[in-house]
Amino acid sequence: MEKPVTSKTLVVFIILATTFLYIYHNYRSTENFTKFHKKQHATSGWPKKLTSPNNSKNQLNDTRTSARTELEQGKSAKLDLMQTLVGLSQKVHEVLFNVTEQYNIIIWEPPFGAKSTNHLDQSKCGACDVSYDKAKVKDLATKAIVYHFNELRLNKMPQTRRSDQYYVWWSMEGPPALRELRGMKLSEYDNVFNLTMTYRQDSDIYNPYSTAADVLQNIQSSGSGDPNKDLDQLISKKNAMVIWIVSNCGATKGAQTRMKLVQDLINAGLPVDRRGGCFPKNKPAPRGQQLEIISEFKFYFAFENSYHCLDYVTEKLFVNAFKGGAVPVVFGANKSDYQAVVPPNSCIYVDDFTNLQNLVNYLKYLDKNATAYKEYMKWRTMKPEEMPNYGRSTKLCQLCRVLHGINVDNLFNPFYSEKYSSIPLFGHSSTPRVVTSLREWFYGPLSKDCLANY
C-alpha cells in the first residue's frame, strides 16, 4: 500500500509542475503566438492555384516521412505533462473526497433553446448541481452562472450580482459566426465575465467538441477487446474512397471556400461522394446512420466552415471522421492547432500540399497501398493515456472543480505560465479572474484568413 503524499512533497510537486509548464509552454507565449500566426498567414496563401504536379514525387516522399515520424513525436510530447499530473492526482482525489458543500451552476438560457441533462460525477468533478433554474440565482450555493453567447443580453442578466459568483461566457461557434453572421462586437462585455468557456485550448474552461482520449476510450470500450482485430475488421469493410457530408453551403467565407476546394479536387480527378443538405439530389445521409455510412469509406473530408480560426476543430473531425472510422482529410484550423488535439499520425492536412493535384495523388496512393493507409489508423490501437488532453477535465466538470478550488486543469492551457501561474493549483486566488476584454480575447489573436476585420 502506497504511503500518502506529505504536504512537503506536494509543495515540491507543485513547484516542479509550475517550472516545467513554464518551460513547456513558453514557446506559445503571446508574442511568439502572434508571430507564428502572422507567419502562417504570410506563407499559407490558401486556396492555392491548381498547378502542374511537377514536384509530386518529392512531396509524396516528404509526406510519407512526416507520417512515420509524427507518431513517435506525439508520444514523447505528452510524457512530462502526464508525469506532473500523476504527481498531483492524489491531492486532487483527496480534495474531491473531502468535499462537503454542493454548489449550483445555472445555465441562464438554454443554447438555441435546447435544454440538455447535465449530471456531473462527484468523484471526478466535485459536488455541483447544474440546472436552468433562474430562481436559484439568489441561493448562496449558486457559484456560477453560464451565459450562452446567442441568448446573451446585458439587460436580461440579474439586476444585482454577488461578488462570489463566477460569470461564464460560453460559445462553441467560430468567430465568423459571431462577427460576420450576427454582427457581435463583444466590446460591451468588457470586465463583465470571470471565465471563458469555449473550444479554444486557452479558454478558462476548456469546452472542446471532444478529445482524442475520450474518442479512443469510446472506440475501445465498444470494441471486442482486441484493438488490432477491430482495426483490421474496420479496414476490411471499406468499399469506397472519399465521402463529404455538409449542410452549410456558403453562409460564411470559409464555407464558400471549402465548396470550391472540393469541386477543385473533383476536377483534379478525385472521386468524392457528396451528401447532406448542400446536395439534396444525392444519396441521403440520415443523422442516425451517418457514422455507419462513413465507416465504409477510407477518407472523410473534415472541412470546417472557417479558415485558420484558432483551435476551431469541431465534430466533423472528432465524431464524423474518428468515430465514423475514416481517415480525416482536414481543412480549417492551422496544422499546429490540429496536432495539439488529435491522435498522432491520424490526419491528412490539406495545407501540407503545394497544389491540389499532389493531394489527389497522395490519396490515390493510400487507396492502393494498404500498409501506408493503415499507418493513419494505428492510433486506434494505442492507449487512451497516450492521447492529447488525457486526464484533462473539461466543460462543466472543469468549472465545478474550479468552484471547489481545484485548478490543476490550468496546466494544460498553452498560456499557463503567463495567465494562470498566480492562481494556486489548489485553493482560490486572492485576485478573481476577470476577462477585461472579451472582444480582444476572442477576436484579437486571429489571422486575417479567419476574420479580416473585427
How many strands? 11
Name the strands of the widest sheet in spatial order: 2-1-3-4-5-6
The CATH class of the domain at 212-386 is: Alpha Beta
CATH architecture of the domain at 212-386: 3-Layer(aba) Sandwich
User: Which radius of gyration do the C-alpha atoms yield?
Assistant: 23 Å
- Measured as a percent range, the helix fraction is 25-40%
Which parts are unreliable, with pLDDT below 50 for 5 consecutive residues or more?
Answer: 1-8, 18-57
Strand composition percent:
5-15%
Listing every helix as H and every strand as E from the N terminus to the C terminus, the arrangement reads HHHHEHEEEHEEHHEHEHEHEHEHHHHH
Family: Belongs to the glycosyltransferase 10 family.
Main location: Golgi
Membrane topology: Single-pass type II membrane protein; Single-pass membrane protein
Biased composition (Polar residues): 51-64
